[in-house]
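Hey, quick one: can you model this chain's 3D structure?
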Amino acid sequence: MERSSERLLDFQQQVHSGKRINKPSDDPDGLAAAISERAEVSAVEQYTRTSDSATSRLTVLDTALSDIIDRLTLAQSTIVSAQGSQKAPAEREAAAKTLEGIKQAILSDLNTSFRGSHLFAGADSIDPPFTMNGTVVSAYQGSALEVTVDLDPTRTAIIGVNGAAITQGDAARDVFAVLDAAIA
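Sure thing. Here's the predicted structure for all 184 residues.
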């Protein structure tokens, strides 16, 4: 009878508090399992927040890269249409002005930031990866080290890109030098 009364009191406390375990002595094994499960839930919630943030950053990054591709395609078309001995100096000057605008737009895209972090500066995301002095674009000022985040225990995503890999890759000159040569 006494044991039944104790169990009834325990059940009433559980109903009142909404918790099956109110103190460690209530169920040591259950407490260890609850702590482990809470840690797992926290980890999943953190991965979810990281994934949401990474998705937003990657969307901005993808938009900037798409713009760069569009601008490079336009630059290529402009250069091809301005070539040839049949072009008047005014036509070539107009093409050069168009290329200068494209260069400015590419520079702007490469200096894109998201929540105060420059996406194409690698691990050095505070400062813009490229600057312009007059008409000359600086060499890459970011980091070659790319930034990654864990999306879950087995997957990562790059969220801070090496801008030099975008503008130059393995080529001898970067895109800005090529545009400058075309403008000249």
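One thing worth noting: Residues 28-82 form the longest helix (55 residues).
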